[in-house]
Amino acid sequence: MQPTLILASTSPFRRMLMENAGLRFSAIAAEIDERAIEDGMPAFERTGEAVARRLAAEKALDVSRRHPDAYVIGSDQTMSLDGVLFHKPKSSDEARRQLATLAGRTHRLNSAVAIARDGKVVHAFVSHADLTMRSFGDRFLDTYIKSVGDKALQSVGGYQLEGEGIQLFEKIDGDYFTILGLPLLPLLETLRKLDVIDA
Hints:
The chain is α/β, with parallel strands linked by helices. It is built from 7 helices and 7 strands; from the N terminus they run E-H-E-H-H-E-E-H-E-E-H-E-H-H. Strands 1, 2, 3, 4, 5, 6 and 7 form a 7-stranded mixed sheet that branches. Helix 4 (about 90-100) crosses helix 5. The longest helix has 19 residues, at about 50-65.
């Protein structure tokens, strides 16, 4: 009998990716304060990759302590540009400012996964994607923000690549699943190695 699998998230996007892959799992939200954890890290360690890795681990560990016999998947995504970390915008105005900053430039998405069991991380990795936004003017940006509405507040970059956000880009280097926030191919390979799913 295969062990229980838990996704330490209620993200509809991550849940959909795992369901579409045919995985049998339950979803339980981690109860952590992401900003407090990030703020507690030494400033020199607060890189996009390190923050994503730490938050993914903390999510997995939080749920694993409550469900020690299960394999728990924690995941997190950060976005960085020139050493600056971006977070989910809190308003349409903030989303607009973020997108204006990203226009014509290449930013990096860091998607981390940590798998925990019995309160310990047993495997972790980070995948990257580099996305180049095209240059666009205020008129397009205003139309875009108005069109997507609150969806601009649901992702770290203020865009959703699987929707109208694709219009913002001219070049993408990276795995589609990494961009969506769950690097599915390396995750599936890891679950097979751990005998959580059939090889």
